[in-house]
Design a protein that fits this description.
The structure is a homodimer.
Chain A (H helix, E strand, L loop, with lengths): L1 H4 L6 H7 L4 H7 L3 H26 L3 H18 L1 H9 L6 H27 L8 H12 L13 H15 L3
Helix pairs in contact in A: 4-5, 4-6, 4-7, 5-6, 5-7, 5-9
Chain lengths: ~170, ~170
């Protein structure tokens, strides 16, 4: 519902109705609508951070790391498009500590890509780039929630490999 | 207001109040809330298409074309962040003919970049890439509405030049 109508347009009563709970019963499970938004966001960004740490922990080849990061990120967006739409589009609807936490996790994920590039540069495989350029490269993936078509002819794996190709070429010394 | 709260959360009465008009007086100027959204969207995407046609019409060097497309696109997002947020985030809130027209303009803009790459490839400056990769490269720019900081230390021109550098490297044969 958040993905379809936008977070601010969905009321707590509407959510309750969709899951067959009264407003009071729903508040037994969640403290606020914002908590729901936070739960959705934190799940996916935490999973991306964990996957990134895992990939960097077990793979040392710089180009293969980019390929694996690329595949996991694209699969996540591809298979959870409604949730990822909410994560990306509504990130500014969170407030206070919740907002700060999600922003920190986003930055942590970006830092994993940065580490991958810095370590690749130390091996002579990549050139060094600025954080704003890393944001740009991640934007290639993040923006795809707006155009990905899970029923389309191009699959997540193929898109991920092509994007990894663009990233690796853009990083060549 | 659309950028801040989301299109669906803003009522026509609220818009009228913000501009000091009654609901009736507002409907004298616009036929619907969706028309407002359409007017915002069409203005910027039309401007991008015009600028792209202009750049491709007067510049022939493939790399310089990418640099100029990059600068104009980034300046547009940088200087009109609220409007561009609405354009990108709310594109799926449009319906019928309006939605189709905006989608066509987006595709036309993407085609200008594709033409630039194809003509660059014919000169041996670039390799050919697929439309999905062009979408990816444009995503670098489009996603920036979510993180650009007009009061930050990195200006639009600097970001545009760095992004153009990434694009050009990713296109090297």
């Amino acid at each position: 519902m958040f993905a379809e109508k936008g977070y601010h347009a969905v009321g707590i009563a509407e959510i309750g109705k969709a899951v067959g709970l009264t407003r009071g019963a729903l508040y037994h499970h969640i403290s606020s609508k914002e908590e729901l938004l936070y739960e959705i966001s934190v799940q996916y960004i935490s999973d991306l951070v964990r996957s990134g740490e895992d990939i960097l922990g077990r793979e040392v080849d710089p180009e293969m790391r980019i390929l694996l990061l690329s595949r996991y990120l694209m699969e996540t967006i591809f298979c959870n498009q409604a949730e990822m739409t909410v994560c990306f589009r509504e990130v500014n609807s969170l407030t206070g500590e919740r907002r700060r936490f999600i922003a920190r996790m986003h930055l942590e994920y970006q830092r994993l890509w940065e580490r991958c590039i810095v370590e690749g540069a130390a091996k002579g495989a990549f050139r060094k780039i600025t954080p704003v350029e890393v944001k740009g490269l991640l934007g290639m993936y993040f923006y795809s929630f707006l155009w990905l078509d899970p029923k389309g002819t191009v699959g997540a794996g193929d898109i991920a490999d092509r994007f990894a190709g663009l990233v690796i070429r853009s990083l060549r010394p």
